[in-house]
């Protein structure tokens, strides 16, 4: 039991240290994956399973986290502007629909309580608002109340940060319980060792006393 608890404790510490050490690399990897997926695979060649899965997952993430694009804010080229600036989806849609093509997918649009799109023409850029997304490139001074403008990495990071205290409390509680288990295991193991030591001493003493008593009884005369 003690060995298992110690192994789990060491594993927990190692994983935590690795996660902390590679936190920045993990962030960069997630950003790169989001950007590449949207730019190369979103919304095109939907006969391919990979493209369909990426498109479905991207739409679900954008609706759930109220975001659009990979990362960054309103003036980033990797948030909502990523679709227009670098995606194969926008190029293909422009070929099919010309100047009526949307600048962002419908999953980037804000919705009402009944799940209907709040203002679809304004959100998709079919109605141009001066110096506002998505019909105009960044940097911008205008706004679009119908469009999600934050990148999905930033939105997900905010979601996690809001819950990090709970996760931290759970992690600390887990460490404390493991340490308590290790301490109790050491105490119990020590108790067993001491009990075994004195038990063997008592057994040896009892055996020698019995042997001595037996020898004395056999040499004593029988009185009648």
TrEMBL record:
It is found in: Membrane. It holds the Pfam family Tetraspanin. GO terms for cellular component: plasma membrane. Its main location: membrane. InterPro entries: Tetraspanin/Peripherin (IPR018499), Tetraspanin_EC2_sf (IPR008952). The chain crosses the membrane at residues 164-192. The keyword Transmembrane applies. This is Tetraspanin. It comes from Macrostomum lignano.
């Amino acid at each position: 039991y003690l060995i298992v608890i110690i192994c789990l404790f060491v594993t927990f510490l190692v994983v935590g240290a690795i996660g902390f050490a590679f936190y920045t690399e993990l962030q960069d990897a997630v950003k790169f994956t989001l950007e590449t997926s949207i730019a190369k695979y979103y919304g095109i060649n939907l006969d391919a399973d990979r493209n369909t899965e990426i498109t479905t997952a991207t739409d679900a993430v954008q609706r759930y986290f109220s975001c659009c694009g990979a990362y960054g804010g309103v003036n980033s080229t990797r948030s909502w502007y990523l679709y227009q600036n670098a995606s194969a989806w926008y190029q293909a849609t422009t070929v099919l629909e010309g100047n009526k093509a949307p600048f962002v997918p419908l999953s980037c649009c804000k919705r009402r309580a009944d799940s209907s799109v709040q203002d679809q023409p304004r959100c998709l850029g079919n109605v141009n608002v001066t110096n506002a997304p998505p019909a105009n490139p960044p940097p911008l001074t205008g706004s679009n109340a119908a469009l999600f403008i934050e990148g999905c990495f930033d939105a997900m990071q905010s979601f996690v940060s809001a819950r990090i205290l709970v996760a931290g409390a759970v992690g600390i509680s887990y460490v404390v319980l493991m340490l308590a288990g290790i301490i109790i295991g050491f105490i119990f193991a020590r108790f067993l060792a001491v009990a075994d030591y004195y038990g063997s001493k008592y057994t040896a003493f009892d055996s020698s006393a019995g042997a001595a008593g037996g020898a004395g009884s056999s040499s004593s005369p029988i009185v009648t």
